[in-house]
Specification:
It holds the Pfam family Methyltransf_21. By secondary structure, the chain is an alpha/beta fold. The protein is built from 8 helices and 10 strands.
Length: 219
Amino acid sequence: MSFRDYLPFFSKRSSYAQHGEDIILMSYLQSVSQGLFVDVGAHHPFRFSNTYLFYRRGWRGINIDPMPGTKKLFDRLRPGDINLEMGIAGQEDSLTYYMFDEPALNSFSKVLSQERDQQTAYKIIGEKNIPVRRLEQVLEAHLPAGKTIDFLTVDVEGLDTEVLESNNWERFRPTMIVAEDLDLDYNNLKSSAVCALLFAHDYKLVGKTLTSLIFKCGR
């Protein structure tokens, strides 16, 4: 099935995110016209996308994903964005990228990938060394001059905290942040490394979906 076969279905949808994260974001950002997003772990131009609804409404941004072939697909379907085929991590390096028969599960996390391969129906079908950089380095190089980030979304299957830690929070402060936390205890938010990090940078938790946390800058 080609991407064109998906379009009639997706064109009728009000949400393109996996669990409605884009609708929650839109409720906070509806007054912003032609804003800017950064999507780390972008996965696909519209499947499970937290940003495609905004793209269709005139927003533009930076999509980052390490899956081979991602840039070519994004350049074809979202030519208005800056599309980067690379990984984000705590330091500039090269890491092993585990690829599944369900690409949404691809990850740099060896532990999480092996657990999924052994305990679920999804299987690792390949591994590849992929260059990674810190988020602050990528934003310094590619964020358009004079622009601020209206929202940052991070979904990298197990290494979300490491990605967030690689940002320079004094220079780059998104208004909203979506970050995955697969092990969240909602009754004990202090146990969440994602919450602890973002609370320390003056963000407030304002929403939650099945696997994502949504924060708003408190400044």
